[in-house]
Amino acid sequence: MRTWATAALDLLYPALCPVCTTTLGAGRRDPLCAECWATIVRIEPPYCTSCGRPFAVFAPAAATAIGRCGDCVAAPPAWDYARAAASFDGPLRDALHALKFRGRRAVARPLAELVLEQCRTALPVDVDAFVPVPLSAVRERERGFNQAELVATRVASSLAVRLQAGWLTRVRATASQSDLGAAERRANVRGAFAASPRVAGRHVVVVDDVLTTGATAAECCRALRAAGARTVGVLTVARVL
């Protein structure tokens, strides 16, 4: 029934991919077309067990015995583990921009499916809650939604894990991270988040759209640890490689 209904709607109002603007057809992942979906560069093992960055060439010398990259061995990150579904480039970058900056909320659906496709088996089984990275009240009001929460809601529902948006709050507004360098990003978000005492003793996964330098995710993790979280993971749709 749904297939017939979709076909009928497409005849009257042809659906266009928000990334490449071609008409959607067979193999579509609404609202993304089959080609854009297929050309997203997925992150596959082997990757660092701490930060999730894929190893360019797998060799025993590329990692420690527990699979950490050199950067994570030298400076352990604020989280226990981080996983991302795909590389932040090409169709995925454009899809995320359509979601965040053009208000295409429907894009959150295939992005959540991508996270589940690539990261479902990589997540520990004892996760207590997913916590989306919060926006400032002003930015969320301007945008009309929190893109991290849209993705996290679908992922949490599919995995039968609780979504606890209120367990992490942004206590001060920050400048956009987009045009800042790594050191500036860290300074920009320092002390910007606070966690509820309800995270104490729990395994919490921070969900965001993109992991760039990791500054925002790290600050969220520090706030959760300060409130007593037992284990803190990070899960993102994309990461910059």
Describe the structure in your own words.
The protein has 241 residues and is α/β, with parallel strands linked by helices. The protein folds into two domains: 1-39, no CATH class; 40-239, Rossmann fold (3-Layer(aba) Sandwich), CATH 3.40.50. The chain has nine helices and seven strands; from the N terminus they run αααβααβααββαββαβ. The strands form two sheets. It has a five-stranded parallel sheet, sandwiched between helices. Strands 4-5 form a two-stranded antiparallel sheet. Helix 9 links the parallel strand 6 and strand 7 (231-239). The longest helix has 13 residues, at 147-159.
User: Structural class of the secondary structure composition?
Assistant: alpha/beta
Instruction: Tell me the major beta sheet.
Output: 5 strands, parallel
What is the CA–CA distance across the termini? 42 Å
Percent in helix: 25-40%
Radius of gyration: 18 Å
CATH C-level of the largest domain: Alpha Beta
Q: From the 3D coordinates, which CATH architecture of the largest domain would you assign?
A: 3-Layer(aba) Sandwich
Q: Could you report the average pLDDT, rounded to the nearest whole number?
A: 90
Flag low-confidence runs.
Answer: 4-13
Range of strand content: 15-25%
Order of strands across the main sheet = 1-7-6-2-3
Listing every helix as H and every strand as E from the N terminus to the C terminus, the arrangement reads HHHEHHEHHEEHEEHE
Concise structural overview:
The longest helix is centred in the middle third of the chain and has 13 residues, at 147-159. This protein has 2 domains: 1-39, no CATH class; 40-239, Rossmann fold (3-Layer(aba) Sandwich). The chain has a 5-stranded parallel sheet with strand order 1-7-6-2-3, with helices on both faces.
